[in-house]
Every structure is written in C-alpha cells, then in structure tokens.
Amino acid sequence: MFTVTESAAAYLSEKLSEAQAPEEMGARFVLENQAVSIQIDRPGPGDTTYQHGERTVAVLDQEVAIQLAGMTLDVSETPEGPKLALIPGGEEGELEEEEDESDGRRRRGLD
Prior knowledge:
Layout: E1 3-4, H1 6-18, E2 26-32, E3 35-41, E4 48-52, E5 55-60, H2 62-67, E6 71-78, E7 81-88, E8 95-99, E9 106-110
C-alpha cells in the first residue's frame, strides 16, 4: 500500500493552495521513464485520492498505485528547503482509506 505522511499531506496542501488549485484538484503522481512527476489534476473514476482536511492532496491512478505500493511519501529537509521524498516501506502517519459509493473513487484521509 502507498502511504502519505501527515507532513507530506500538509506540504502538498500548502503547495496546491499557493498554486490556487481548487480543493477538489490534487497532485497527480505520474510515472514517466521510471521517474515520478507531479501534475495538478482532477481525480477520475478508479483513482485513489488522499485528503488533508477537505482538500484532495494526492491522486494516483491504478497503475501508479501498484508501482508505488510499499512506498511512503514524506517530506525531507534539504539545504534548498523541504522537498517531497519517496521512502521504501514504513507505516507511520499512514492515511486511512475511505470508500466513496457516489463516484467509485477510493479516498484516503488523515487519521
């Protein structure tokens, strides 16, 4: 299972607010040539979403969710400031999954 720490969810929420993204849009994780990039996008059917409060902060399609299974998204401090980091394994700060019957998407919110 892909997990997102509370720190990473708060970081994404702040960055999405700075970009003036609507609350229903999140950071979509995209795999290209075995590298992960992020794009602001609306969740679609079959996507897994991660919430921070009322804001959607992360969006993964089924393929990306499978590829990132067992990884944890966290924030690391660097000389340039905080940056998102994918860390193998880990369960601390995991976001809790919720099933939404209305649109078929899986949502995860902070405990």
